[in-house]
Write a structure and sequence with these properties.
Elements (H helix, E strand, L loop, with lengths): L3 E2 L9 E5 L3 H12 L4 E5 L2 H10 L4 E5 L7 H11 L5 E5 L4 H9 L4 E4 L4 H26 L15 H13 L6 E4 L6 H10 L8 E5 L5 H9 L16 H4 L4 E5 L6 H13 L1 E2 L8 E2 L3 E6 L3 H7 L4 H7 L2 E4 L9 H16 L6 E2 L1 H9 L5 H15 L4 E2 L6 H4 L6 E2 L11 H15 L4 H8 L3 H17 L3
Parallel strand pairs: 2-3, 2-4, 4-5, 5-6, 7-12, 7-13, 8-9, 9-12, 14-15
Antiparallel strand pairs: 1-16, 10-11
């Protein structure tokens, strides 16, 4: 049987209560679960189980149905009333549809039939523990005011976002040019605005433009301005964004899309701190803080000759990376709740909550479109839902059916085990897939320099070419 590195949650440090009148069964389950670094406590009847729950906190309860005194269903019902946050898994040797329905009605999280495979039981307990973690997070997020103020809409409490905010605080105190990199939809413009809001230029203009949205001639006019009559439809003088952002911050988004000829003109303007309007004969000085952003691998673009090396070093004094949404953990739910509030108010609806199954799907989805995609999904859900809670049926099919990638590491049979180099090659390819083949970002994640990564990729390509069909 193949083993994979799965994204199932760990049971490390979780506390599990096992309730069964068969001592051998309790010991068997305890032995299996303890291999996953969790703590197990077991007892033989419902009364002792309730006493144990009064004295300590459990993450999951496993209970048999047929026991002396109160049944497992009675216990499940009481736990559901007293501690609805604790998931209960019901075990029984009498696995009928009626029994399963009765267990669910009693508040059970799940239902397993004896005899069961210990791996399947462990997986069920892992899911239940994950369910409780999500319940806690959702409750916390519903009560928590998201961090605003000087970080504006830069929402997030993950360690990645905490580090990013600390870095923003540092770089905001300087006037150094900053290049913000990261995938599309990660909020690079929000990072730029946050830098501006924390800088000494906060009371001056923040001006943004997408360099990939305009032709070369229009981009030059937008950035540097033009004089009346310099081209068709130039009916009056225009200052241009460098002068409109005078004293403040100019943000050039998707600078990697800028035509080469325009790159030359931009570099000259930055080096001279002066702009010449299109059709003009005088240069006008400016004082702005330049921030740029791209989703492209500019270092590779420099090597291929599509982006000027001198401009790259001019704009890349400091580089910030906008983290992907899939790397931000529970920030996914934090952002989802923030968007829920926004769209609830916009549509004149009561504030929604998110059902646990839907929350789990949001947490496990890979989010190739990042925060922008999440925003779109939540807006769609608020528009379509018939209830005051976002459920699975309110989510797109691709999220409901999403399954994470697994990395093959071999099996128990020594003949199935693979060399370490194969695992490394698989992981390198996996990282490249996740970062959409951005080799600069991949190299940073892998802890390699770019030349070493290129050598490894050539080696992988060679081995695949030579491999027998």
């Amino acid at each position: 049987m193949k083993k994979t590195l799965s994204n199932m949650p760990s049971l490390k440090d979780k506390s599990i209560l096992i309730v069964d009148d068969e001592v051998a069964m309790c010991e068997l389950i305890e032995t299996a679960l303890s291999m996953h670094d969790c703590r197990c406590h077991w007892c033989g009847n419902a009364e002792d189980a309730l006493k144990a729950m009064n004295s300590q906190d459990f993450d999951v309860v496993l209970t048999d149905i047929k026991m002396p005194g109160k049944s497992g269903l009675d216990l499940c019902n009481q736990i559901h009333q007293l501690r609805p946050d604790v998931p209960v898994i019901v075990m029984t040797a009498f696995g009928t549809l009626e029994t399963a329905v009765e267990a669910i009605r009693s508040g059970a999280y799940d239902f397993v039939t004896k005899p069961f495979e210990l791996e399947l039981l462990t997986l069920t307990v892992q899911r239940a523990a994950r369910h409780r973690d999500l319940t806690r997070q959702i409750k916390m997020l519903e009560q928590q005011d998201t961090q605003q103020g000087r970080f504006g809409s830069l929402v997030g409490q993950s360690e990645t976002m905490r580090r990013l905010r600390k870095t923003i605080e540092k770089v905001s105190r300087t006037d150094a040019s900053i290049l913000i990199t990261g995938e599309s939809g990660t909020g690079k413009e929000l990072i730029a605005k946050s830098i501006h809001q924390n800088s000494s230029r906060v009371n001056q203009p923040f001006v943004a433009i997408n360099c990939g949205a305009l032709s070369e001639s229009l981009l030059e006019s937008e950035l540097f301005g033009h004089v009346k009559g310099s081209f068709t439809n130039a009916s009056e003088n225009r200052k241009g964004l460098f002068l409109e952002s005078q004293g403040g911050t100019l943000f050039l988004d998707e600078i990697g899309e800028m035509p080469n000829a325009m790159q030359v003109k931009l570099l000259r303007a930055l080096e001279e701190s002066r702009v010449r309007p299109v059709g003009g004969d005088q240069e006008i000085p400016f004082n702005v803080r330049l921030l740029t952003a791209t989703h492209r691998d500019l270092e590779s673009a420099v090597e291929s000759g599509t982006f000027r090396e001198d401009l790259f070093y001019r704009i890349n004094v400091i580089q910030l990376y906008a983290p992907t949404l899939r790397s931000r953990g529970s920030d996914i739910l934090l952002l989802a709740h923030e968007f829920l509030k926004q769209f609830s108010e916009k549509n004149g609806k009561p504030t929604f909550s998110i059902a646990n199954p839907a929350a789990e799907k949001l947490m496990t989805y890979s989010w190739p479109g990042n925060v922008r995609e999440l925003r779109n999904v939540i807006e769609r859900a608020v528009t379509l839902t018939r209830y005051d809670t976002i459920t699975l049926e309110d989510l797109p099919r691709k999220i409901i059916e999403h399954k994470g990638d697994n990395l093959y590491i071999g099996g128990q049979d020594p003949g199935e085990l693979v060399p370490l180099s194969d695992i490394e090659n698989q992981y390198i390819q996996h990282v490249l897939k996740v970062v959409k083949n951005n080799r600069t970002i991949a190299a940073k994640i892998l802890g390699l320099d770019r030349k070493t990564l290129y050598r490894r990729l050539k080696s992988i390509e060679s081995s695949e070419t030579l491999a027998p069909n």
